[in-house]
Each structure stands twice: as C-alpha cells, then as structure tokens.
Amino acid sequence: MSTNDKFAAGYQRLRTDARVRTEAFCRSCANAGDLPILVWMTQEFNISPEEVRTQDNRALRCCCRWGQLDTAKWLTQTFDLNGKDARARSNEAFRVSCEAGHLVVAKWLAHRFNFTRDDATAMDNHALRFSCYRSHGDVARWLVRRFKLTEEDARADHNFALYASILRVQTLPIAMWLADRFKFTKADMKTWIGPFQWGIRHDFVALKWVVERFKLDSTDMLWVFPNCCFVGEFEAVCWLETKFELTTDDIRRGLDAARESGDVRIIEWLENKFGDRLGGCRNYKHLYRPFNKGDIVVVKWKERRKNDSAVWEKTKGSRLKALGNDLLFIGEEMLSLCKMFFRQFTRVMTTTKKTAMWAIVAVCVALASLVYLDPKSGVLMWTATIGRRVLFFAWLTFMVLGY
C-alpha cells in the first residue's frame, strides 16, 4: 500500500469512525504545536461540542495535564466549555495541572471557572499533596495562598505532603516550608515513621534535619542505622553513632546489614569501634555466614583477615564445623540420587518382556524427537541439543517404566 493509499484510508476512518476521531483529537490536544491541526479537524469533520465532552471532557483534561494553555483556551472558547466541564472527574484538569507543575494553567483554570476552596481540595487535597510530591514548591505555595488552605488540609492523607517532600529528591526545602508554615510536630512525623526509616537512608541532609527538627530519639530511629549501613552512607552512620546511644542490638543489625551489602569500609569501622562490645574476639562469627550477594570485595577482605592469627584461630572450629556439615549434606544428596537411579534401572531390567518392549518404543520415540522439520527449507534437521535430550528422555523412560 502506497503512502497516498494509507493517508486516504486514515482520512476515511477519521470521517466515519467517531471513536477514532475522538482519540486523534485528544492526542492532538496533548501535543505542543498541534493547535492548527485541531482547528483543521474541527472544520473538516465538523466536530461538535458533544464529541469534545466525551470521556468526561478528556480533551480539556489532556490539555491541562501537558500544560497546553493555548489549546485549553481555544477549546473553551470554540466549544463553549463551562465550569461543569472543567470540574469533570473531581476537578481532574486542575489537579493534574498542579501535579505536573503547570502553574500558569492552574491559575487560568481557577480564574476562568471561579474555582473555590472546595475545588482546590478535591480528592483529599490531591493538588497540594502531589505538587509537594512532584517537587513543585511554587504551585504548593500558590495553592495555600490562593485558597487559604489550613493545617488540616496540609495534614491530609496522614501527612502525605510532608512525608513525600522529605523523601523525594531535591524537595527538602518544601518539607521545611510545610513544617514551619503548618506547625508540624513529632506526632505528625511519626505517622510515617516506618516507611521513613527505610526511605531516608539515601539522604543524609534530610535525615539530619528531620532528627533535629522533630527531636526524634533512638526508639523512633530503630532501623535507620542498619539501613544506612546497608546502603553505605558512611557519613550518616558516623553521625548517628554520635547522636544516639546505640545498643548492642543496633550495632549487630548494622553489622549484618553492611555484610549483606558488602560494604567493607563500614564493616571495618564497626569492627574497630565496637569490637569490645560485641563480646569475645570482637564477635567475628558473622564474617563466616553465607552472605547473600557473594560480593567478591568481602571475600578478598576476609582473605586479608586471615593474617590476624587471633581471629583465625578463634573461628577455626566454627569454620571446620560448617564445612563438614556442607560436605555431609552434599554427600547425602548425591547418594540418594544414585540410589533412586539404580532402583529405577533395576526395576526396568527385571520386568517382563512387555515392559522391555515398551522401553524400546520409548527410546525410539526419544530419538525421533531429536529430529525436527525446518519450516523454511522443509528439510528434516538434527537438533543441536542432542546430549541434553538423550539424557532427558532416558531418565524419563526409567522413571515412567519403573512405576
């Protein structure tokens, strides 16, 4: 089909299929510079206001989501859209423009359709919460100032705005502004303390500000120390050690976390700092557990630790015992497999002639499966995985005929 034929077919579909026409119209609303196309489509296909309002005014919502202010103004003027159209789906056009950071579009919607405080706080203050979440501080400040949002609005969805602005990248200034503007307390911060302890581990500046601003204690930060050890935030680990009185359990959790991630620097620092508190010869047992990721750096570091004769001699018994247990387990597994194989083999060889005949048939079928018909050339081909298939079908034969 030539290009002209494809164009003619597409044009015909646009003229006859209302669904296709609406989809193309909405896509053009979302794209920058497509306003002339929208004007042409409206004139060429005689698009009515009812078509523009389909799918809960999807065309207007697409314009606002992608910040196409000129297109939104043209739609409103050409098709006489009103406040009901702009408030479709719980005021989604306004909410998504705030979430995407299109302040100019949000201001125009609020002025053009006389939005009230109820409109701005729709869907549990979605506009404010997600403007903070998406790092759009200018939109959040405008919402608070324009619609006179209160502390209750800022605390919507269990203080989601504060929590999200703390953990998102480059949103700490928004969190500082929210905390000062709406007087957030330690109780507000503790509503998200569980996810916070895991998410804050990558940002030492935010961690330090939260602890000092809300006066959090060691019970509130139970898992922050091991999480920082896990991701290798050495500066945060050192600061937490000076800020809080770490217990032996805290240190051991941090040590295990550093071992799992393979952070040699933090392992050595914890060993030198808290070796006496861990009991024995600095409690080196954790160094000889199987570690999850098999980090070669930790392996090499363990080899270097062999030079410490006290450590090596102290852990010799546990290492030899672990090695013996592993070898015993592997030997038992291999022995059980061998026993099962010979049991099946014996059953096949001692059965009747009928069973032996079926065994021959099964082997022939297995060999026949190694040949396949090439769909391109139409020639019988020999598969490349001969050894694997022979072993598979031989084992399958013994297993089936043995029962």
Account of the protein in words:
A hairpin with a 6-residue loop joins β1 and β2 (about 380). The protein has about 400 residues and is an all-alpha fold. The protein has a two-stranded antiparallel sheet with strand order 1-2. The chain is about 70% helix and about 0% strand. α8 runs antiparallel to α9 and α8 packs parallel to α11 (about 120-135). Mean pLDDT is about 75; it is low at about 280-300 and about 370-385. Among the domains are: about 215-310, no CATH class; about 325-400, no CATH class.
Low-confidence stretches: 280-300, 372-385
Secondary-structure content class: mainly alpha
Content of β-strand? under 5%
**Mind describing the biggest β-sheet?**
2 strands, antiparallel
* Element string (H = helix, E = strand): HHHHHHHHHHHHHHHHHHHHHHHHHHEEH
State the total count of DSSP E strands: 2
Task: Label the overall shape.
Answer: flat
